[in-house]
Design a protein that fits this description.
This protein is an alpha/beta fold. Helix content is 34%, strand content 10%. It has helices at residues 60-68, 86-95, 119-131, 135-143, 171-186, 210-218, 233-258; strands spanning 39-44, 72-75, 111-116, 191-195, 263-267. β1 (39-44), α1 (60-68) and β2 (72-75) form a beta-alpha-beta unit. The protein is elongated, with a radius of gyration of 19 Å. The two termini are 31 Å apart.
Length: 270
Amino acid sequence: SSKLPIAAGCRFGSSRRRWLPATTARAHRIRENMATDWTVLVFGDSWVDDNFMHPGFPSWPQVLAQQRLRAKVFNFAQSGSLCDQLPDQGRMALMHPQVPKAPGGLLRKETLVVIHSCGNDFIGKIAQAVTGMDIMGLMRGVMGGGGGMMNMGGGMAPGEVPELLKANPGHREVQIMRQFMESMYAGGARHFFVSGVPAFVDMPAFNMAWPLITNMINQGKLEDIGVSPGDPPRLAMEVQITALHERWEELCTNFSTAHSDVQCVFFDEV
């Protein structure tokens, strides 16, 4: 059967990187009766890039594919990449001569697309808010081969509320993710496993942002997200992390609704 045995709401691991099914979600674990003719295509950043995050050790999609699903893996993820790079990764997969295709050149129905992206986008936005420099432009320049020249302008204006601390965070990133998923659907993919943004309050990247967040709270600039003067800075990030989680979950729900032949699962890795 080309029906991928993944239950909606599947959750793996925790913030301590235990890539085994969580005890509280055993009912949703991936069943181990998958046929060997499936293909797993991996897209995203360093968290799923076998050559960067765990040199000499398989990434969690590799373990998922080979030990749980007994499938062949093609990894197109690139460490340091932003969600802008997903379309290029997708084109590489669709054009790759060794990726199994159905008659006519489309991906076989027995193909699972794994996506883990946007973490670098949000880390870059935090750094941009703190430094006032165009960190995102630098990152895009480096990843796109533009030489990585720093633009001292084009960053945050003094006192401006960072996008990550505004209502509806991740709107642009979700649009890019949806367009990428549509392109893979047009290429034949019908099964998607989408990881949420790896954001949690105790992430080291947030340490540099606490003074900025505290100042914005005390100035009453975060009222739009329900955070008022006197509230702890952690509350602001907890609100935004929850919003990102809901936005990614909504992405998967809407994509499945738009395509009745699609199975799209949201993976809450945090």
